[in-house]
C-alpha cells in the first residue's frame, strides 16, 4: 500500500489535482493522467461545456459536477473556494487497485469525487481521436 498524505503532498503540491492523479495511477498503473486525460473531449482538462463525446468524457463531466457539489456542500463552503486546490489524504492498495479516503468531511467529499472519477476512467475506453479535441466542436 502507498499512502498519499500531507507529508508527500507537502514535498510536491497540496492540491486535489495531485490526489486525482494519484488515484488514477492507482487504478490504472500504466497511464500518464495528464497526457491521457488533460485535454480530452469536451470536459477532461480545463473548463467543460456541451455534450460529452464519449464515456470517458462523461467521467470528466461527472467529476466536474461532483466538484461543483463539493463547493456547495455545507462541510466545504466555509473554507473551500476551489476543490482543485484542496488537498486530502488517501491510501492506494496496488494489489486491488483501490483507494481509501480518510479525511475531514470536505476532504472526504473531494477524495470520493476523485475516487469515482478514477474508477470511471479505468472502465472507459480511451479514443485517441478525442484527445486534444477541438473545443469549438463541443456544443454549448
Automatic annotation (TrEMBL):
Domain called Phospholipase A2-like central: residue spans: 16-139
GO terms for biological process, alphabetical: arachidonate secretion; lipid catabolic process; phospholipid metabolic process
Reactions catalysed according to its record: a 1,2-diacyl-sn-glycero-3-phosphocholine + H2O = a 1-acyl-sn-glycero-3-phosphocholine + a fatty acid + H(+); 1-hexadecanoyl-2-(9Z,12Z-octadecadienoyl)-sn-glycero-3-phosphoethanolamine + H2O = 1-hexadecanoyl-sn-glycero-3-phosphoethanolamine + (9Z,12Z)-octadecadienoate + H(+); N,1-dihexadecanoyl-2-(9Z,12Z-octadecadienoyl)-sn-glycero-3-phosphoethanolamine + H2O = N,1-dihexadecanoyl-sn-glycero-3-phosphoethanolamine + (9Z,12Z)-octadecadienoate + H(+); 1-hexadecanoyl-2-(9Z-octadecenoyl)-sn-glycero-3-phosphocholine + H2O = 1-hexadecanoyl-sn-glycero-3-phosphocholine + (9Z)-octadecenoate + H(+)
Any one Gene Ontology molecular-function term assigned to this protein's record: phospholipid binding
EC annotation from Swiss-Prot or TrEMBL: 3.1.1.4
CDD domains: PLA2c
Binding site for Ca(2+): 43, 45, 47, 64
InterPro entries recorded: PLA2, PLA2-like_dom, PLA2_Asp_AS, PLA2_histidine, PLipase_A2_dom_sf
Cofactor, how bound (note): Binds 1 Ca(2+) ion per subunit.
Annotated catalytic residues: 63, 114
Claim: DNA damage is one of the keywords in the record: no
Keywords per UniProt: Calcium, Disulfide bond, Hydrolase, Lipid metabolism, Metal-binding, Secreted
Family annotation (Pfam families): Phospholip_A2_1
Main localization (coarse): secreted
Signal peptide region: none
Single GO cellular component term: extracellular region
SUPFAM superfamilies according to UniProt: Phospholipase A2, PLA2
Subcellular location: Secreted
Disulfide bonds: 44-60, 59-120, 66-113, 76-106, 101-111
Names of required cofactors: Ca(2+)
Family membership: Belongs to the phospholipase A2 family.
PANTHER family: PHOSPHOLIPASE A2, PHOSPHOLIPASE A2 FAMILY MEMBER
Name of this chain's protein: Phospholipase A2
UniProt source species: Gadus morhua (Atlantic cod)
Amino acid at each position: 500500500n502507498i499512502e498519499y498524505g500531507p507529508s508527500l503532498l507537502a514535498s510536491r503540491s497540496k492540491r486535489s489535482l495531485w490526489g486525482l492523479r494519484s488515484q488514477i495511477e492507482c487504478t490504472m498503473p500504466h497511464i500518464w493522467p495528464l497526457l491521457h486525460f488533460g485535454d480530452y473531449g469536451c470536459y477532461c482538462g480545463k473548463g467543460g461545456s456541451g455534450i460529452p463525446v464519449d464515456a470517458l468524457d462523461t467521467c470528466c463531466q461527472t467529476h466536474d459536477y461532483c466538484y461543483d457539489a463539493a463547493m456547495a456542500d455545507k462541510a466545504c463552503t466555509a473554507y473551500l473556494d476551489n476543490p482543485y486546490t484542496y488537498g486530502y489524504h488517501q491510501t492506494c492498495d496496488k494489489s486491488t487497485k483501490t483507494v481509501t479516503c480518510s479525511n475531514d468531511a470536505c476532504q472526504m467529499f473531494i477524495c470520493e469525487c476523485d475516487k469515482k472519477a478514477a474508477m470511471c476512467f479505468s472502465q472507459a475506453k480511451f479514443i485517441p481521436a478525442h484527445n486534444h479535441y477541438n473545443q469549438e466542436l463541443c456544443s454549448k
